[in-house]
Amino acid sequence: MTPKSLLPFLLFAITACSNNGPVQLIKFSGMKGNVKMVKEFVYGATEKFGEVVPGELDDVYIYEYDKKGNQTVYSAYNDEGVCTYKMESIFDDRVLESQTIYVKATDSKTENRVIERGEDYCKWLCDIGTDDQYTMTDYYNGEFTKSVDADGNVLTNIAYDSKGRLIDQMLYSDGELFYRLFQKFDKDNNVIEVTHFIPDGGELVMTYSYPEYDKKGNWITQYTWIDGKVTNVIKREITYR
């Protein structure tokens, strides 16, 4: 399983709720100003004569935010403009209440909604649209979130730093760790290094650099590097309110 194919699972996992709402949705974005929408155009890339040269368009990601800074919509499109994944989130003020996830590859729709909330947990009802429902519960303390299924089996463990940024995430299947992610950030909350660890597939370290910013201080160009070689360029279009 590649890091890219894990994206839908990761996106739901990092939106674990808390009494103050999913703080990581705000802080993880690292965005400055009142952002309404972000479009990211992902290109393959090569380096020629010391300069990064964008290649063909691979994917397009679109993020939409409400006036409180909550990320309400995330959608992914392939190079042909077909929407392959979409996640819509509904908030009560700053508290995440429900999510609907569409996946084109499996022609599926999953609806997740909070059915119970306590001081240090919230319980989700997940409906995959085929009369099959299951529950999962997130436990959190501000620095750590653990998600478990109805039988108490651990699904995810997530650790945050003092700024609420995800720094360590572990995913489990049938009680076995099958994926782990580490993230490092710069002083502006931009991700500068991600380590993907897959027990049966080794380790992949990806680093990021940001050569261009807009007037608000948000990056609009990102380079991805693996083993010292550039692999991708992301160009951003940011709409502000």
What does this molecule look like?
By secondary structure, this protein is mainly β. It has one domain (7-235): Porin, CATH 2.40.160. It has two helices and 16 strands. The protein has helices at residues 7-13, 23-27; strands at residues 35-48, 51-65, 71-78, 83-92, 95-103, 108-117, 121-127, 133-140, 144-149, 154-160, 166-173, 176-185, 191-198, 202-213, 219-226, 229-240. A 16-stranded antiparallel barrel has the order 1-2-3-4-5-6-7-8-9-10-11-12-13-14-15-16. A hairpin with a 5-residue loop joins strand 10 and strand 11. The N and C termini lie far apart (38 Å). Mean pLDDT is 86; it is low at 1-28.
Concise synopsis of the structure shown:
This protein is mainly beta and 241 residues long. Helix content is 5%, strand content 63%. The model is unreliable at 1-28 (pLDDT under 50).
